[in-house]
Amino acid sequence: MASIRELHEQLIKKERSAVEITQEALDRIQVLEPKLHSFLHVTAQQALEQARAVDAKIAAGEKIGLLAGIPIGIKDNMCTKGVPTTCASRILENFVPPYESTVTQKLADAGAVMVGKTNLDEFAMGGSTENSAYQTTANPWDLSRVPGGSSGGSAAAVAAEECVVSLGSDTGGSIRQPASFCGVVGLKPTYGLVSRYGLVAFASSLDQIGPFGRSVEDTAILLNAIAGYDPKDSTSLKVEIPDYAASLKPDLKARSKLRIGIIKETFGEGLDSVVEQAVTKAIDQLQNLGAEIHIISCPNFRYGVPSYYIIAPSEASANLARYDGVKYGYRAPDAENLLSMYTRTRSTGFGAEVKRRIMIGTYALSAGYYDAYYLKAQKVRTLIKQDFEKAFKQVDVLACPTVPTTAFKAGEKNTDPLSMYLLDLMTIPANLAGLPGISVPCGFDNNNLPIGLQLIGKVLREDQLIQVAYAYEQSTTWHLRQPPF
Ligand code: GLN
């Protein structure tokens, strides 16, 4: 499948119709889904209707935007009016939102064609999609392996060309980690850049929606469409939005040298040697492109995982209190009284990982423990933020691996939550500090599994991050490789 710009050219030159492009995506979904399981719901009819509307505009000689007629997948934790939104949980099995999230509304307004809702770890808690109550998504590079998570469905769908681009959400790495495992580009924007109205909340001080694409440019085009102030989201930032896809250059040569910092602490114990080699080579390449390389120390990074796994479950325990069988969603049958209805609903409606986090979070927030756990974790969060502030006095962009390993086998880690949590080591700090981060393909291991380079930028400097990622991508061929599946 072609890039957004190529498809746009084909559409306006009337070489292909939006219906043909959409049908091609739907056909691929039909062929691949029995093995891939990226989608929880395919919205074929609605997609074809949207495509027809784009074709009608073209026929009438109206101007269309870049995303018009482009097939897109949406993670199933973003509310879509009239289309099931399950968060891959039993508790929302029959939930059909009566309203539309801001991001999906913006995409619909731009003429993008939603082909379906993608699989995830239940309520976005996890790193493999194995916590989905419905299905585990396979990695298109090796079907016996996980695509990463929690936005694994969105990453796999783009890698396998079931859609051109997709949306995910990233609370502790859930866009960047699956992008790395699936060999695609994934960007977590600055906290507040993209509206979260209609995103089902997991950990409110960390959650951000962001784009996946097969190239940096496609990812940037999608970011253009979703970024911007939204009065419906009180955490949304009122800022000027640049055109992220405009004036991208194939090198980093500028009057004042771009400074890139290697985060020293991310190169140590636990890092796979193939990942280390690939990322080191990528940094050399950035130097060749004109960047100045510095070694930076972020000594508090190692406390990211422990503080995140207090803060995220605490916020989740509060956010998930609303699923009580009363207001909406699943209600357990045959309860004797109100209390047993609550307990049965929640104990059968939620999966094991979600319940584990609700328990940890409730414990950490309870009187007597609050100061020792939650407050302490928030203080550590400040230290991590200060590490970044110091680093960004010396450099413009930080570089490190996205994940310490490549994709693991399904079933390998899902009985050991701690080993799964540890994989988030390099992605969590950006969430704790609210900073933008991107993962770009930077190599393959001996099993032909993709490796990701992570770049972390200053607050609201997505433009700079995208420029660095683009220059790197254009000087390599990693993004051109296609999964065997
Ligand atoms: N893997 C992390 C977790 O399980 C991140 C999840 C996310 O970013 N949504 O919480």
From TrEMBL:
Heterotrimer of A, B and C subunits. This is Glutamyl-tRNA(Gln) amidotransferase subunit A. One of its GO terms (biological process) is translation. It is an enzyme of class 6 (ligase). InterPro entries: Amidase (IPR000120), Amidase_CS (IPR020556), Amidase_dom (IPR023631), AS_sf (IPR036928), GatA (IPR004412). Residues 20-465 form the Amidase domain. NCBIfam families: gatA. It holds the Pfam family Amidase. GO terms for cellular component: glutamyl-tRNA(Gln) amidotransferase complex. One of its GO terms (molecular function) is ATP binding. Its EC number is 6.3.5.7. The active site is at K75, S150, S174. Allows the formation of correctly charged Gln-tRNA(Gln) through the transamidation of misacylated Glu-tRNA(Gln) in organisms which lack glutaminyl-tRNA synthetase. The reaction takes place in the presence of glutamine and ATP through an activated gamma-phospho-Glu-tRNA(Gln). It catalyses: L-glutamyl-tRNA(Gln) + L-glutamine + ATP + H2O = L-glutaminyl-tRNA(Gln) + L-glutamate + ADP + phosphate + H(+). Belongs to the amidase family. GatA subfamily. It comes from the Bacteria. Keywords: ATP-binding, Ligase, Nucleotide-binding, Protein biosynthesis. Coiled coil: none annotated.
